[in-house]
Write a structure and sequence with these properties.
Layout lengths: L4 H4 L4 E5 L11 E8 L2 H13 L4 E4 L5 E3 L4 E8 L4 E4 L2 E5 L4 H10 L2 E2 L11 H6 L3 E2 L2 E2 L4 E7 L5 E5 L18 E8 L1 E2 L2 H18 L19 H7 L6 E2 L2 E3 L7 E3 L5 H19 L8 E3 L2
The structure holds flavin-adenine dinucleotide (FAD).
The site of flavin-adenine dinucleotide has 32 residues, from strand 3, helix 4, strand 9 and strand 13.
Length: about 290
């Protein structure tokens, strides 16, 4: 019998439903599933999977993915690392830290800048990969450098320019580098003002969309000059439903899971939106969410 990953890594679970690990509450089983709590263990797990030539998927909080109903082959590593250090205005944080919790931590350290990101429900790793943004700011504005494990299993530090950030873009969408930690350069802040800003942004967010309804946020990136939500709204598609997948009636760029939606139903709605937008405006929409296991 060839060695399998359960022999190389203690604590690997088999056939773990991904619906438990995505904000969509959708997704079939991961063949193998492993939680990492430290960066050293994350590195060890990635190397183990690569040595066995096992397909590998790196999971943050699952807030920007749609996992296929048939699940994911190979190993899913859930990155739950939270280590962090502070050196004056520079903070280095592990990829698995929750963005919202980290933002509050920076504010409590007397630092400002990341308030815009407090309501984005993912990890540092997911936010760096997608250069997450809100309220006119993006992660890239505050990134100093990113530590990665390269495809060749080397730990190295990339400068901000090597990360090639753009609108919901980075080098990490096009490479097998895995984000281990990120260093942010923040500015001295005022805790009361920062918390007031967080509060203001939270109110603005929840006015637009009910965050308790399962979704993966915006499905499409905005084509230049045209918010995707506006195009979808103008087509009268809000509220359109296939099975339990539904175009949100409050935010047209959200597809929600209104009950027991299947990934296949979300995919059908995505195809419908793309077709209608192309037909009416001649615009090709592209997914912001990462489709996994299709
Ligand atoms: C209600 C709601 C509101 C949202 N609002 C916003 C918003 O305002 N702005 C915004 O930009 N996004 C928003 N999002 C989308 C989402 O929260 C972000 O894209 C977030 O940054 C994803 O992080 P994650 O940890 O959940 O990533 P996941 O969904 O787990 O993964 C996303 C991708 O990143 C990869 N990845 C994760 N960690 C790593 C790592 N360490 N190294 C390499 N690759 C990695 C995964 O493999 C996958 O390809 C929203 C989502 C929801 C559900």
């Amino acid at each position: 019998m060839p060695i399998d990953i359960t022999q190389k890594l203690t604590g690997v679970i088999e056939n773990e439903p991904m619906s438990r690990h995505t904000t969509y509450r959708i997704g079939g089983p991961a063949e193998f599933f492993y939680r990492t709590k430290t960066t050293d263990d994350l590195v060890k797990a990635i190397i183990a999977a690569r040595q066995l030539q096992l397909p590998l998927f790196i999971l943050g909080r699952g807030s920007n993915i749609l996992v296929a109903d048939k699940g994911i082959k190979g190993l899913v590593i859930s990155v739950e690392t939270t280590e962090r250090t502070k050196n004056n205005n520079l903070v280095t944080v592990a990829a698995g830290a929750g963005l919202g919790e980290f933002v509050i931590w920076t504010i409590n350290q007397g630092l400002a800048g990341l308030e815009f990101a407090s309501g984005i429900p993912g990890t540092i790793g997911g936010a760096i990969r997608g250069n997450a943004g809100a309220f006119g700011s993006e992660m890239k504005e505050f990134v100093e450098s990113v530590e990665v494990l390269t495809a060749g299993n080397r730990r190295t530090i990339l400068s901000k320019s090597e990360c090639a950030f753009g609108y919901r873009e980075s080098v990490f969408k096009h490479s097998d580098d895995i984000i281990l930690t990120a260093t942010f350069k923040l500015r001295p802040g005022n805790k009361v003002e920062s918390l007031a800003l967080v509060d203001k942004y939270t109110k603005q967010r929840t006015a637009k969309q009910d965050y308790s309804i399962p979704s993966a946020g915006c499905v499409f990136v905005n084509p230049s000059g045209n918010p995707a939500a506006k195009l979808i709204d103008e087509l009268g598609l809000k509220g359109t439903r296939i099975g339990d997948a539904q175009i949100s009636s409050t935010h047209a760029n959200f597809i929600i899971n209104a009950g027991q939606a299947k990934a296949s139903e979300v995919i059908k709605l995505i195809a419908l939106i793309k077709e209608k937008v192309k037909e009416k405006y001649g615009i090709e929409l592209h997914e912001e969410i990462h489709l996994v296991g299709f």
